[in-house]
Specification:
- The protein is α+β, with helices and mostly antiparallel strands.
- It has a domain at 171-320: T-fold (Roll), CATH 3.10.520.
- It contains 10 helices and 16 strands.
- It has helices at 14-35, 43-49, 60-75, 85-91, 102-110, 138-153, 245-258, 260-269, 288-291, 307-310, and strands spanning 5-9, 56-57, 117-120, 123-126, 158-162, 165-169, 178-184, 194-198, 201-207, 213-215, 218-220, 236-242, 273-279, 282-286, 303-304, 314-320.
- β10 and β11 (218-220) form a beta hairpin.
- α7 (245-258) crosses α8.
Length: 322
């Protein structure tokens, strides 16, 4: 998935810890071999190449994933929709970037959208020649598969950092959860400002970053609003905790697409643990569910103006232990 994978395992038996870490990496590689849209032999690449109205049987895990994705597309009102590969290509988001004209963008939108996919009895059919992109959920799905294996095989406590998304399994020795810090979207070396402690589950974050491009003097963000086909306006970052890494991955993207006002209201209404960092004006807003993740000494109100915090909180998250 074009990113780093780091794992910390707490086990007195070094050999067992190494075996478990290798097993985790194999699970992630298996997910990559199924979900990558870059590798030509994967099922997702096959889906992207498949012409419209041709049926593609889905294996049970992939069928289950597609049904979950469909549910999230509906629940978020299309703020999350991975069937926008043609729109991303029009902007060259994964390349040097470009500005498509209105006609080209309209055409790309007409060939996009999960509502133009049909899933019946684990058989998928495209109504148009759309392309799928797994950037907003691939890491989360891979992490959920690792955690599922950990439960089945009773792995030792571990913390994974998968390209900035964290997943914890069991609490480390003599701790109630995993410590993490949110960090600044534009400066990954900035001093961490907001500390959290989370139980089993995952922390994912989305925001403007070094992935954004400048094309013809215009900022082209790497997160695109599936509803309009245009890059999202930069405002800061959103971090989400959820017991499911897939849900955390999806929700951090969807809430960023919704924006700091609509996204915050949606998160509160749906009892999502989310933290919104805005740069203009500098502020930090957390939902009641996210409040529970803050250590007692650092509890803040549901909305707090925090210039220093917003200047030192990054969109990626890094795990630490005292």
């Amino acid at each position: 998935m074009g990113t780093t994978f780091r794992v910390s395992i707490f086990d007195e038996n070094r050999k067992r810890a190494i075996e478990q870490s290798e097993a985790m990496l194999r699970i992630v590689e298996e997910a990559e071999n199924q979900l990558s849209t870059w590798r030509p032999g994967t099922e997702l690449s096959q889906l992207n190449r498949m012409p419209p109205r041709r049926a593609l049987p889905l294996n049970p895990p992939l069928c289950d994933l597609f049904l979950k994705v469909r549910d999230w597309v509906l629940l978020t009102g299309g703020a999350f929709d991975p069937a926008i590969g043609r729109v991303l290509h029009a902007w060259r988001i994964q390349g040097a970037g470009r500005i498509p004209d209105a006609v080209e963008l309209t055409e790309a939108l007409s060939q996009s959208g999960f509502n133009r996919l049909r899933i019946e009895n684990c058989t998928l059919t495209k109504d148009v020649d759309l392309w799928f992109d797994t950037g907003a959920f691939g890491k989360g799905e891979a992490l959920d598969r690792v955690v599922a294996a950990a439960k089945e095989r009773d792995f030792s406590p571990f913390l994974i950092d998968f390209g900035g998304q964290l997943a914890g399994w069991k609490a480390p020795p003599e701790r109630h959860g995993w410590d993490a810090r949110l960090a600044h979207p534009q400066d990954r070396t900035a001093t961490s400002a907001i500390e959290i402690v989370f139980p089993d589950g995952s922390i994912s974050s989305s925001g403007g970053s070094e992935k954004d491009l400048i094309v013809e003097g215009r900022r082209v963000g790497h997160i695109v609003d599936p509803r309009t086909g245009s890059p999202c306006a930069a405002f800061g970052s959103v971090a989400v905790w959820n017991v499911s890494a897939l849900a955390a991955d999806i929700l951090s993207t969807a809430l960023y697409v919704m924006g700091p006002e609509a996204g915050f209201r949606w998160a509160v209404d749906h009892q999502i643990a989310a933290c919104f960092i805005t740069s203009q004006p500098p502020s930090t807003r957390i939902t009641p569910a996210f409040q529970k993740l803050l250590p007692p000494h650092s509890r803040i109100g549901a909305e707090q103006s925090a210039t220093s915090a917003s200047q030192s909180v990054k969109s990626a998250v890094s795990g630490t232990l005292p």
